[in-house]
Design brief:
Layout: H1 5-8, H2 11-37, H3 39-45, H4 51-58, H5 62-74, E1 79-81, E2 86-88, H6 91-97, H7 105-117, H8 119-128, H9 140-151, H10 156-160, H11 167-173, E3 176-180, H12 186-194, E4 199-204, H13 207-219, E5 225-229, H14 235-238, E6 244-250, H15 259-269, E7 270-281, H16 296-313, H17 325-334, E8 339-345, E9 348-357
Parallel strand pairs: 3-4, 3-6, 4-5, 6-7
Antiparallel strand pairs: 1-2, 7-9, 8-9
Helix pairs in contact: 2-7, 4-5, 7-9
Domain S-adenosylmethionine-dependent methyltransferase Rv2258c-like winged HTH: 25-99
GO molecular function, one term: methyltransferase activity
Domain Methyltransferase: 172-282
Length: 358
Amino acid sequence: MTTTAAQQQEPAEVEERLVTMLNNGALAVMLSIGHRTGLFDALSEHSPQSSAELATTTGLNERYVREWLGAVTTGRIVELDPDSGAYRMRPEVSALLTRRGSANLAVFAQYVSLMGSVEDKIVRCFEEGGGLGYEHFPRFHEVMAEDSAQTVLAALESDIIPLVPGLSDRLSAGIDVLDVGCGRGRALNQLASNHPHSTFTGIDISAEAVDYARTEAEARGLRNVTFAVRDAANLAENMPAGAFDLVTTFDAVHDQAAPDAVLRGIRHVLRDDGVYLAQDIDSSGSHQGDLDHPLGPLLYALSLTHCMTVSLAAAGAGLGTMWGRPLAQQYLRDAGFGTVEVRTLPHDEQNAYYVCRP
């Protein structure tokens, strides 16, 4: 039996690691609050500031601002000048925790708070089985939209579309595109804006997400994109065969109740010379194989508290976030895809990209 690093540690080392973990878990919640309230942005743009000045800048309650500053200061995220009583953020920290940075890690910290918000209900699922439907996650699409803005939107034209040779030229010339599980439609609206000769359709089971996507499309004056509330599992029954040249999914398959039906539907609506481009979580599909995954604990935890449970709530497959490459490739082959290429991108250690053809 393989001895893990934790088993090799002395008791005092294990205790220190666990205490550090508790502090970091608390700080993750503080990062989420700092992001949602705009505190990090305000502190970065107007440093240094006292707690009273920061409260005035943000329009927030000073007592709460002061206590939040205590957490992020003792957590070595924000610095305090003991003489002036003013707080500041170093530029390299600001780049990682504000909306001005290209990799705002505070966005991902929101997932920790989302997991905590359903803990009591998840404990009941441990005891009783079943799952929690999407209605238990009112902020999910909001956070996912921010997440995808960094992992998908920022790299969509520069890195993701080029994974399919010639696809950018085809989009510019004009093709029919379907995004399944489009969420708030940010990726599709960006593509529609960049490629006015192509026609884009987005579907999602969430009416709230679809309404948001439509509103954004209208605000941008986009006339080549439409959105509809639709269950992706019914694609084969509700959409004509061979209607699209390109089908995309961005982190949208593993939490489906019927992923096999979704993938068969995608193959049904895809033209014989078309391509299906899927982004999904990269994993080995096994606990042992994922021991060195840089985001392993976070992704398994998110699976437990969201992706797996929403599928089980609908009596679904419950694949979970970490279903892994081998199972994903099997599902794709069973759905009728003859060629499946797996690609990765240097900026995105969380996902794998599947380029699939009939």
